[in-house]
Structure formats: C-alpha cells, structure tokens
C-alpha cells in the first residue's frame, strides 16, 4: 500500500537521500521515494503496519537531519507555520554580530587610537577568547542540535560531524577567524541550496497547476460547478471559450476549435464537431461545447500528465544512485583518515601536533575540504534543476534517467512539420496591404489565436464591420459598407462560392480574404 507523507521545508538533497534510504530499511516498508516538486515521500508499506507508529518513526528520521520540517500524512491538513529569514537564522546572525564586534575590537581599535590620537583600551585575551567561543557556539548551534539528535538515533557520521570536528579543532588551537569563516560559508551555502531547490520546485509546480479546479456539469438544464473528481462517467459537462477540458469525453453538442499544443506539440488548432472524442487538457478557443464524460478524472489524460510531472524526480539515474551509495561510506572514511593524520603526528612528530600549523590544524583542513555536501548535492540538484527548467519551457522529462540520456544524443528526428514550434502564432507574410486591413478589421471580433495574431500584427487603419458571424473551424464573415467580407480557410471561401487559385504556398496556416464575392489575398 502506497501512502503519501508530506515533508514541508525539506530541501537538502543529501538529507533527502538519507530519508529515502533509512525509511526503506524500516521492517514494515517495501520502498520509499521522495518527490521534490511536491515535497512528498511516497512510502510503499507492507500489508500490516501501525499508521501512527510508522509516522512517528519516519518523523524521527527526518528530525535528525533537518530542523523545522513539518511531517504528516498527505490526507491530514496541518497549518504551516511561516518563518522569515531573520527568525530562521537568528542564532547565526547574533553569533555573526558578536564575532564582528570581537574582530573589530582587535583590528579597528588600534587604527582608531592612532588616527584620532586617543587611547581606548582593548579587551583582555581571556575576554576575547570567551567572545569568540560564544559567537562560535551560536553560529554552529543548528549543526550541534542536529548532531545530538543524530547520536541519539545512532547516526554519528554525516556532514555535520565533519564541520563540527573541523571547526572545533581550529577553535581549539586558536584559529578563530578560519573556523568562523568556514561556518559562515557553510551556512551561506545551505541557504543558497534551499533557494535553488525552491526555485526549481516552483517551476515544476507551475506545470502541475495544469490541473482543472472545476467542471461545469449540466444537471436538468442547469450548470452546476463541481470538483472534477466528483464527475461520473456519462455526465455532461459544459466547456466555455478559454476553458481547459477537465475530463476525456465525446462532444454531444456544438463545434469548436481546440488548442492541443500542450498535449501534442502541434500549434495548428484542431476543429472538432459533435461525435468527436476530445482529451482533457486541451483548451477551447471557440464556441461553447457540451461533452459527455467517458473517463473519470483520475484516469483522464490530464491526470496522467500531472502524475508524470509529479513523479519525474522519483526515477533516478544510475549516476544519482551511485552518489547516494557512495555518500554512505564516504564520511566515516574521511573521519578515519583525519584521525590517522593526527595519530601519525602524535607518534612521529609529537611536538608539532597542537601548534598553529600542526597536525590537528591539518586534519581540520582535510575535514573541511572533504565535506561531501557539494558532491552529494551537485548531482541530484543538477538533474532536479534541469527538470525544473525544462518544465518551465513546456518540456516534460519522465525522470533524470531520460534527462541524462539527452547528453548522449547525436541526432534528433521529428515526425512531421508543425511538431516543433514556438507555441504561438505570428504573421510571417501577407499578399497586400488591403488584405491585412480587411482581415484585421473582422478578425478583431474573434477569439481565435490566429485572429489575435493578425490583429496584433496590423498597424494600418481598420474598417467598421457589422453583421459579424463566426463559423467555428472555418472562418468569420461580416459586412463593410454593405459589402460581404470573408476571412478564413480555403474551404470556407469555396463554400461561399468564392473561386480562386493560388500558387503553391509554403507550409503554414493561412487566412484567405474576400470582399464582395472577389478574392483579395491571404
């Protein structure tokens, strides 16, 4: 049984990998996979498990790794407590101010005394040490809390361990400035990481918002707004101009033009009539249509697309899986090597162990540069950012495996003309100025995307048009000074007995124009 567990504010990629791994090890869990876009852990539970106990143990796993994570079953709506930047990093900011004050007292005061010929006394060395240590503890307080929680849950070796040991060792031998600088850079890096993840998450979530929030259901000649999930097979829904079709179905009344580009990639509008099947996700750009539902929402085309986007980050590439496995053994090895370095100094060069540039200091440097955060973070975050950026431009990847496969592609074959487009219509050329003026004059009464492109492109004066009538899928007609003007497809003009011949035209969408029974141009 798969359950969704929401984990608000969990953005650390390294931590997420650990949550997946440790949750999967629980005796009542088959597997666990984290969804970046929704911040949801998908847990495949075995048949028998205690719901409350499972959540409690999973929450304990998360709390060890990061603070302020709101963990609950997806069905349970919990009000999220909003925190601002200053509150979240209050201890870091206070510690930074204290460190700056201490640093200034020993570097700026002598300069001020000399400049203004005054004598402001400096704090004693003991007072300086106390201020630095208090500031250091405040700066590293978040890491200390997480490390204590980790020890309680037998999670001793992690990136926090490296940072604490390294910076503490530097503080112990008097390298205050270096130690503080490392903690500040680490905290700043964590902040930038969270910003990057949140940005990509918003880009993916924007595509997930394709979901239609309502459906206009026809009940006894009345239109009632319902949640798409409540609509049954056989119900008739009404889709107006500009609305997205919420469920798959068959048109029972009306005809219109559909924008299918988000599903098919085709920029050309599709004309549909009564009896035609339509897919959810398409946008109605013409007249009102009535659709008989043939698939419930959860089985509709749109729901499947949303599910694909939501689960795109769950399908990990081989490179991601290698990094996850590598991180498990990396930290203990690094700590062991640092201890061996100190042990070597104790045995073979004991006089140079605690000196400013001695073996403890060298071990601390080794621990800092060996911190796995950038390594473990870079691969999954790169894939995640790539999926997010692609989603922003309407490109859907089923997972990082497929995104990685693109790097090995040498040739791309497109099936037919019109598949790869800008996604918007624009006027490329027109036969003469009169054609453009007539087309813009009448097309301003239409909501068709091609009509909007013509009106937007036109810079010439327009005529006053009366008796406007639009024929969905074909064109539009009206009168200018008592003369009938037509604008639309070739079939539309021929249907109105306008005979004309044109030379072979380049591939594209064309609007043909006639006035008073005579072909004017395109």
What would you say this structure looks like, in words?
By secondary structure, the chain is of the alpha+beta class. Among the domains are: 2-82, Alpha-Beta Plaits (2-Layer Sandwich); 215-310, Calcium-transporting ATPase, cytoplasmic transduction domain A; 433-521, Calcium-transporting ATPase, cytoplasmic domain N (3-Layer(aba) Sandwich), CATH 3.40.1110. It is 46% helix and 16% strand. The chain contains 17 helices and 18 strands. It has helices spanning 13-24, 51-65, 85-88, 90-116, 125-139, 141-152, 159-172, 176-208, 261-264, 301-310, 318-348, 359-369, 373-392, 400-406, 433-443, 449-457, 490-495, and strands at residues 2-8, 29-35, 40-45, 70-73, 215-219, 222-226, 236-239, 249-253, 256-259, 270-272, 277-278, 283-284, 289-293, 466-471, 475-480, 483-488, 512-515, 518-521. The strands form 4 sheets. It has a 6-stranded antiparallel β-sheet with strand order 6-5-7-13-8-11, with no helix packed on it. A hairpin with a 3-residue loop joins β14 (466-471) and β15 (475-480). α4 crosses α8 and α11 packs antiparallel against α13 (373-392). The longest helix is centred in the middle third of the chain and has 33 residues, at 176-208. The model has no long low-confidence stretch (mean pLDDT 77).
